[in-house]
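Course assignment 3, question 2. Fill in each field.
Student: A.L.
Task: Predict the tertiary structure for the chain below.
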Amino acid sequence: MDKESYSELRRHVEKIRVVDTHEHLPPEKERVSEEVDVLATFYQYYASADLISAGMPEDEFVKIWDTSRDLGERWEIFEPWWEKTRNTGYARALETAARGLYGVDGISKDTYETLSKRMQERNRVGLYSWVLKEKSGIDVSILDTGVYDIDKSLFAPVLEFNEMLRVRDRTAVEAIGYSMGGRIHTLNDLCNAVKARFDRLQGSVVGVKIPTAYNRPLFFEKTLFSEAEEAFNEIFRMRLFKRFEVPPKGDKRVPADVGAEELLPLQNYLVHLIVQEAERRRLPIQIHTGLQEGNENIVTHSKPTHLINLFMEYSDAQFDIFHGGWPYSSELGALAKNFPNVHIDMCWMHIISDTRARSALSEWLDEVPANKIMGFGGDYAFVEGAYGHAMIAKENIARVLASKVNDGVYSIDEAKKYAEWLLRDNPMRLFFPKRA
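Answer field:
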């Protein structure tokens, strides 16, 4: 790679005010009220999944988060497993954050105490603005937390229906009713609750999120109302009011819920309803595809090709397909090339594998119209992770575009334009069309 073209593009990328397509950050007041240190804060997830994958025992894993224990004691437990996982993209993001935000040379036995102290000193009001706006160059982050009263100078929320799509027992149904100010007795009531949530938050949200790849395959078959109603009614059968199961551990009896297979028709119907309402209101629909966070998930549930029937039926809906579909990135490229309403979102992807993120982006730029690729979403629950990921994403995008310049595919000015599209203009057009 020619260093001159890369350096010029890297400097240009740093000037772009980024639109971050996906975060899970809690309210700042919640973050700054917590005890923070490098182990309790940085290893909540992602990197923690690598520790488990490397073989870290669960009892040791739990101890490293326990702030009631001495930090040095926890480090002694953690260090051998850190050495086994320090090679991964998740680890790189954390060390990038440690260096760029707190001025220490990575995460090691020589730095962890200083790093933790500096994190504690910064853990006050203003932390989010400093990390996101000042250090990361992020103009706005699209937030998926189910909280809608947020700092609009930093975030824009998406509408989520997690509890509705995952409902399995009558207690959960009743909780949905209470949250909406009424009771739910029929499938019609539940459908009206979906529509009421759209109505209540119209104008406050910039999209909709569907996260069900963690629980089931992403194929949402077209389902009759009567089929969905039968699944819904199963939740309220009298036998479920009386039947109890004993958990494998513990001595408390709990009401049995409806099995996952029984509820598929209800979930299918609700997903179609949510897509219909989003399409009607011109809200883009974010869908998790590819790798699931954590360990021992069924990754084949999350193939983006499972969604083809939705893309075909709802041609006026805009679908923002997450995580580059990794490891099904080539499939997603084919879908985005074929369907006008399918957009590629690289949120999370750069830290799963920066090498494969670059190779996928290079291929997509040869295959897919450049206005359909979103280049960055941090996808973190702690703000330092968003910074680390942003730095890796910017580097990846500059390197890929520089290679295109060096190969004679783009001029340097075209490469700069595409950098702006990937990091700002494309998500602005999709989520903030009135401001684009």
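Instructor remarks: The two ends are 33 Å apart (CA to CA). The chain has two domains: 1-33+126-158+283-436, 35-122.
Grade: pending
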